[in-house]
Amino acid sequence: MVPSSNRPRVWVVVLGMFGCSPRMQYHTLSLLEHGYSVSVIAQPGSEPIAPLQNNAHLDYRYVAGPPVWAAQLPAVLSLLAKAVWQLAVLLWLMLLALPRPAAILLQNPPAIPTMLVCWLAMLRHRAVWVVDWHNLAYSMMQYRHGKHGWLICLSKGIERVLGRQAQAGFCVTKAMQTFLRAEFGVEAEVLYDRPPDQFHCCSTTEIHDLFGRLQQQLQQDGIGQCLQRQLEAAAGCCRRRRQAQAATLLTMLPAGSNQPVPRPGRPALVVSSTSWTPDENFDILLKAAQQYDDAAAAADGAGSKPGSSKQSSSNGSGGD
């Protein structure tokens, strides 16, 4: 292991909760594995993944939130107060307090004030500045402040001008790459998300254990009629001629066995890694589900299958 004193340092800047940004956590883990020391500059509020806890080559510098009174101001003034507060804290951290970095990796959005401070820090420390174009700050702002057209135009202008100052950048899709080149004059490499080593296909036993733990919560939450029918069907597996000792949404434990198996008539469960916000085109997923259902019904030859259901789910508002 390379001593910390001999490791080049990278700042990873996430003006949000670091633990809620899987992509930036994986960037950080990769940097550590390739012999860098990392300083994470982020907001507190969520724990990172286990490999990023108690690492000798990793430190966290949290950006305190603005005063409570700032949130009580009118929308535009509140946004301005928050930006000024963050600007002051980031300027102190990144121009004066932190050890000099060899490189700065910024997640965008937000672009204001992080892009400005990263640009100044790049000049101050003669560091390489890299932007991960996770999304576009001005387009995200449209959904909260769309009626203030001048504010959106200003945000887009700042994002375009400062984004060009970075020495390198990458994004997750070719569509984003094309947009950045055409609209911002920014060249970004496409770096697709790839699952880390801890991701794997679940065994039937793991699925059974997970949905066994979730069973009570699913029954209590407002989950919709389709999923409720599936849970009732799972309970029916246990009642019918004692075919199963226990059943979950997707699995069942046959009578006299300790090895779970997939439950007949189980629904298809689709998990999306993105959140349900206006700029995420969930119609693609929903139309695909409808096409699958139609194809399955046609293959069955007798209309819609009794066990089929459609259930959409989201992990909250706002993207990683």
Note down, in words, how this protein is organized.
By secondary structure, the chain is of the alpha/beta class. It is built from nine helices and ten strands. The chain has a seven-stranded parallel β-sheet. A three-stranded antiparallel β-sheet has the order 8-9-10. Helix 4 runs antiparallel to helix 5. It starts with 8 loop residues before the first strand and ends in a 20-residue tail after the last helix.
Low-confidence regions: 303-320
Number of helices: 9
Oligomerization: single chain
Order of helices and strands: EHEEHEHEHHEHEHHEEEH
State the end-to-end distance: 30 Å
Structural class: alpha/beta
Relative strand content:
15-25%
Helix content: 40-55%
Strand order of the largest sheet: 3-2-1-4-5-6-7
Mean pLDDT: 79
Give the tally of β-strands.
10
Shape call? globular
Sheet with the most strands?
7 strands, parallel
Cα-atom radius of gyration? 24 Å
Secondary structure elements and their pairing?
Elements: E1 9-17, H1 22-33, E2 37-43, E3 58-62, H2 75-97, E4 103-108, H3 114-125, E5 128-133, H4 137-145, H5 149-163, E6 168-171, H6 174-184, E7 189-190, H7 204-220, H8 225-239, E8 244-247, E9 251-254, E10 261-262, H9 283-300
Parallel strand pairs: 1-2, 1-4, 2-3, 4-5, 5-6, 6-7
Antiparallel strand pairs: 8-9, 9-10
Question: What would a concise description of this structure say?
Answer:
With 320 residues, the protein is α/β, with parallel strands linked by helices. The protein is built from nine helices and ten strands. The strands form two sheets. The protein has a seven-stranded parallel β-sheet. A three-stranded antiparallel β-sheet has the order 8-9-10.
